[in-house]
């Protein structure tokens, strides 16, 4: 998540405040009892981090050991099957994920960046409605994903949009889920463009929009892309809200965007993992590896991009 | 303000002949100009003229409103929330703050160079070409870029690396690039806010030499905290100072303006004399 300093949604703000006061108590107090308290506290934190790392390692190792036999081409090229688990794969789920994620990108980039531009460049922050929008975006970033699933079911699958249980509905639902993050990250990136650049452009007789288009957005692009990639990698892993908007666990035919059943990788994994036969468990583990690989590549790319531009801009 | 512009052009340059005589309409006429930021009155009661094709220097202690006044000459103050300009501010006889005047059009004709060099993080070429492109100048862009770089005495140093990032230049070169960028759109006036304060002495000399060349074609207003610089480059100098009123507000005032020589050798006001002779500020 790319929620920056001063921009945390309610929950992380609490965590931040707690952590800060813990630190302050470390520096503020000098008594012996306090120092022992500090050491204990640090040990506790390290222990917590150790558990988290250990858990992650366990999942990775376990998936690899378990799923290794099924890391073959069938994993990608074959659809699901309940009869021949030895050759079944994730074809339709991968395609479904591609459709859903493709739709998410098409939706969140223009809408998220547009909203960020409006809030940073045009909105008058003394107006109550703009402040309301800002506070709401920050809060939305902290709403559990299942709530967005219910929203999607009520308003996108049924209700006003009435798209039905299709990939497009999944796309829109996930878009709403990650949109706040994209907006927050894009705003931060836009704000980081130095005012001297803006003034230089405006001082030459460029309009506000020309300044945004030629200087602000190019300067903010790496930050925006980082935010989008991290948001998308979150969307790829989401299963719960998609189950509500109709991602089914067993799709025989290649999906399409606006009609027909669809599935996605995490939902398919969930389905395979729940079956009693050993072969399906192996298949589920192989699917986990597949998803981890995709996420790892995307996150590494996001980090690389950020470092690349940070180094380039460092002067 | 295209309509005003044309009619001004007819009046000041008949047949395209430069008439840089002192009788020419002043580029700026200020009558009782004051600027405030919110409730804070930063500068009050400024009356002065700025002549065409001369360098005019604003000097005075910091906080006396030099930058504030400079920014109001091309409506950069519009970008600061709460900033407000009162009084009459004429550009070649036309009210700069008339409701029909578009601030963007004003800035095309009255360019600005800032204290800290602020090239765009793009190539040298694109830095210069940006202005002409956005204002929609037609013609040979390579030629326009070369002309501007020559005009800023930078061409010989960068002609073989126009595609390099502007930040590969030294500070002094960056500032001259910013000047090239400003003259590329062929403005009437160039405003410079302490353009040499971030530069080393050698670069400073180059920029000062450049100003002497540029005033053949442009009217220049420069803010400087360096009195020697004002004495070296400016035909006319305006001295500002801070006055503290009864309520304790610090308000910038124009103390006196005139020929640079006069201001420096026989100022009429005691405060100018004190400042020039280094007794204050
Ligand atoms: N952007 C601004 N917002 C509010 N007040 C400002 C701003 N810029 C300048 N001022 C105020 O206006 C006064 C004059 O400042 P300035 O024009 O920068 O002086 P100088 O350039 O002569 O040092 C100062 O009191 C300063 O605090
Ligand atoms: Mg200043």
What do these coordinates show?
The complex is a heterodimer of chains A (315) and B (281). Chain A has 315 residues and is mainly alpha-helical. Chain A has helices at 10-28, 32-67, 74-77, 91-122, 128-140, 145-157, 167-191, 195-203, 208-237, 240-244, 265-273, 278-313. Helix content of chain A is 73%, strand content 0%. In chain A, helix 2 packs across helix 12 and helix 4 packs across helix 11. In chain B, strand 4 (83-91) and strand 5 form a beta hairpin. In chain B, helix 4 (124-134) crosses helix 5 (141-151) and helix 5 (141-151) packs across helix 7 (171-184). The longest helix of chain B has 14 residues, at 171-184. Chain A binds chain B through residues 194, 196-197, 199-207, 210, 214-215, 219, 313, 315, and chain B through 74, 76, 79, 104-109, 111-112, 114, 116, 118-121, 130-131, 134-135, 167, 178, 181-182, 185. The complex binds adenosine-5'-diphosphate and magnesium ion. Residues 37, 42, 62-68, 80, 250, 252 of chain B line the site of adenosine-5'-diphosphate.
Secondary structure blueprint with pairings:
The complex is a heterodimer of chains A (315) and B (281).
Chain A: H1 10-28, H2 32-67, H3 74-77, H4 91-122, H5 128-140, H6 145-157, H7 167-191, H8 195-203, H9 208-237, H10 240-244, H11 265-273, H12 278-313
Helix pairs in contact in A: 2-12, 4-7, 4-9, 4-11, 6-7, 7-9, 8-9, 9-12, 11-12
Chain B: H1 2-12, E1 28-37, E2 40-50, E3 55-59, H2 66-73, E4 83-91, E5 94-95, H3 103-109, E6 110-113, H4 124-134, H5 141-151, H6 155-158, H7 171-184, E7 189-193, H8 201-214, E8 219-223, H9 227-233, E9 236-244, E10 250-259, H10 260-265, H11 270-276
Parallel strand pairs in B: 2-10, 3-8, 3-9, 6-7, 7-8
Antiparallel strand pairs in B: 1-2, 1-4, 4-5, 9-10
